[in-house]
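Lab notes, practical 5.
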Amino acid sequence: MAAELRLKDPFSIITLSMATPGDQADREMPWESLFAWPRRGDVQLALDDHSREARDIWATRLDHAVAQADKAVLLVAEGAACLASIWWVRLSPSHYVSKVAGAVFFQPPPPGALDRQGGQLFASPDAALPFPSLVADPSMRGSALAQLCGGRLLEAPIAAPAATGMWRQAQRLIERLSAGVVEQDLRVLRTLGVADRL
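Output from the prediction step:
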């Protein structure tokens, strides 16, 4: 009975990271240290190398993970995996991307790796992401990436939070952001007199 009463998570969580030789299993993920979110989601994908071949294999695995998800997907990425995720979103078929409800990016590298002119590994067209995104990074890199993606900065807590044991806090953040975006769009449509005709 208790299991039936438990709130169901609205999203399938896919955690994305950069593999580092030898210490991947021991290394604390930034979402663990900043927000006490669990180390792993429903699916974990690590980008093992900085080559185009490794990137393409990783993207194929992400395609598969998103396609197999039985709920809307929340991407949670750290480091260069943030840029790999953005590259994937911008260049993947829309039927994959449409299953993604939002993304939370932690401690991204400089967004110059998304620059098409530089021929970078994760170069992609300039475009806001088609879903809400949050960037957790106190540096100017976080602010620049949030602007580049059409996302928002997420303030890290001053004191370490208590461990929640689940991803519900991350899901609520994206739900609130999504609801805020929808409400803002409706306000604009009402102002223009369009909402009454919908």
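Observations recorded by the TA: The longest helix spans residues 168-191. Confidence is low (pLDDT under 50) at residues 1-7.
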